Amino acid sequence: MMRFNKDDLVEMLRYPRSHGSPMEKEFIAVYIDSVPGMNVDGFGNRYIKVGKSDTAFLSHIDTVHTYAESTQRQDVLVNDGFAFKDIHACELKDESGVCLLPYDEHIRGRVAVLKVKHGVESNDDEELSAFVSACDKMLLKEKLDGIDFVDW
Amino acid sequence: MYTDKSELLKSMTLAGCKAIGGRYVEDGGYCDGKDGDYRFDSIKDISKPHPFVTGKALGGDDTAGVWLMLNLLSDDVPGLYVFFRNEEHGCHGSRHMASHDPGLFKGIRKAVAFDRKGYADVITTQSGRRTCSDEFASELAGQLGDYKPSSLGVLCDSASLTSLVPECTNLSIGYANAHQPGESLDLDFVEDLYHRLKKVDWESLPVAKERKIKKSLFRRWE
What we know:
Chain A is an alpha+beta fold. Helix content of chain A is 26%, strand content 19%. Chain A has helices at residues 6-13, 22-32, 104-108, 124-138; strands at 39-40, 46-50, 55-60, 76-79, 82-85, 97-100, 114-117. In chain B, helix 2 (60-74) packs parallel to helix 5. Chain B is α/β, with parallel strands linked by helices. Strand 3 of chain A pairs parallel with strand 4 of chain B.
């Protein structure tokens, strides 16, 4: 049986897997049922015994994605060893605001990151440019010293 | 570390103003910047799906757990490997297996779920209910290194097995902000955890909870 590396893990993350969704079925076929000797119970749980042991290892196949999200693969970003769903495709509305995203090296530094959208009354591209420019300013870690990362 | 959310939000707003060279306007909580106003009020909703972010969760919960188990399988680490279905709606798969196929867990005395956020938790309590002993958790944490017992567990599949398996826990696997935009997974940590898991002497872990139950019953019979 093959060993899976980090690239494989990223590829596995590309499957949004609402219970019973097409992507979950494909994921099971590719990664779980391909294991020789894998069993399935009446609910669809997969299990396999290896050797003699008094230990069970458990994980779950489904994810919290909606069924609609789970009909095609998602884009996954990898930055500084962290994987994220591709959130760069910001859906810019016509209001200003801030979103907080744990991101990049700031997670390691336990620092919260602000992303700012400046409300610009213009077409989408200009608005996006303004947003990215503002984000760049805000993503300078040294300017965010003193802000702790909070996991809530 | 901030424990009060409003305190954090104000600090972030102040820092944001400083970063762009703007002036913080107390009344209204926004920043008067040279390029216009930066309004910070919407950060009150950051713990919910945010309008600026089209995507939702990554799915590190529980893809990392599946990946870890597949690799332990590839190394032929002895054990019963279970990949449950429909956990996110209330552990339906594990509850079904516990009630319909309890015999599958005959001889199993330790159940370890790979489904906990963060980096260091060996969960001893789920939803206020004790699921494994401190002795078991401490020994497992010690063998893993940089882990510690935690009673802050919420709910995962191992909680469905407590009537069948004496020691049921859940291990941190390196994800953060699950179930929401901004979820992340520390890939390096997951890979390192895999190597640490391979070194654990699973058979040597104590099953103290079972012993306590037996002792308690014995005392009652006396």
